[in-house]
Amino acid sequence: MSGHSKWSQIKRQKGATDVKRGQLFTKLGRELTIAARQGGADPEANPRLRLAMEHAREANMPKDTMERAMKRGAGGGDAAALEEIVYEGYGPGGAAILVEALTDNRNRTVSEVRNTFARAGGNLGESGSVAWLFETRGLITLDTNGADPDEVALRAIDSGADDVKVDGGAVEVYTRPDQLSVVRRALEDAQLPVASAEVAQAPKTTVPLDARQAAQVLRLLDKLDELDDVQRVATNADFPEEALAAYA
To answer: What is the mean pLDDT of residues 213-226?
Structure first.
């Protein structure tokens, strides 16, 4: 598996233990709110809301907290102040970075993001400067539980996957964004355990980094992810094994 894919996997594992629960619930709540505002409060008719609810349940978010967040979105009010912004920039070694944010104060958020890039030796770019290096895809990670990964991959393709990547014991399933929930359900019906499912910004190509650059970029990604207004961070960096081992 490439260093980029391994970083994504480690990031998800770390997210379950390292992120402060209050901050995590705030980010999940904002996603529920914006999803309900854009597509309505019925998850069957709103794929983005359905996915946000799945993520909230996986994080053990209380049901009443989820419902309040969705009601805020469906009912307007303070939810109308939230706006989605994507920031683009470069980190050490020329790694492209996309930062997806939800904020009620654009000036505060851009200042925090710019300062975080600058302190890490990177720079915030103009809109469109790196977005062309990524494509929006549904990404499902499967836990093979000792099964033959190639067999799991074939079953995933039968379940409607557009593409499957296998390396060692890891299986990553790619779908169209609007088919993520459909393919996930098909995988679960086929008794394939889903470790994670998300709409992700997947890099079209990756940039290899040396150990020093990798450590700098990994710290930058963590600092960006810790910002309250930041929902997701993506990069096209390909990290060497020793840097990932230290990060994990």
So the answer is: 94
Structure-token pair, residue 219: 């710290």
Across the chain, the runs of DSSP E, i.e. the strands, are: 83-90, 96-103, 123-124, 134-143, 163-167, 170-175, 194-203, 207-208, 230-235, 237-238
Q: Which amino acid is at 76?
A: G
Tens of pLDDT, residues 35-81? 998 888 888 888 889 989 988 998 889 999 899 999 888 876 566 67
The model's pLDDT over 35-45, given as tens digits with 9 standing for 90+, comes to 998 888 888 88
Contact assessment for residue 39 and residue 48, using Cβ atoms and an 8 Å cutoff? yes
Give residue 3's pLDDT: 61
Nearest 5°: phi and psi at 220? -60, -45
Instruction: Quickly name the fold that domain 83-132+205-247 has.
Output: Alpha-Beta Plaits (3.30.70)
Pairing assessment for the beta strands 83-90 and 237-238 based on DSSP bridges: unpaired
Tell me the CA distances in angstroms from 31 to 36, 50, 83, 124, one per residue in order. 8, 11, 11, 24
The CATH homologous superfamily of the domain defined by 134-203? YebC, transcriptional regulation domain (3.30.70.980)
Distance CA 213, CA 191 (A): 41
Going by C-alpha positions, the residue among 3, 7, 4 that lies closest to residue 247 is 7
The superfamily CATH assigns to domain 6-81 is Integrase, N-terminal zinc-binding domain (1.10.10.200)
Question: How far is CA 199 from each of CA 25, 55, 176, 243, rounded to the nearest angstrom?
Answer: 19, 11, 9, 26
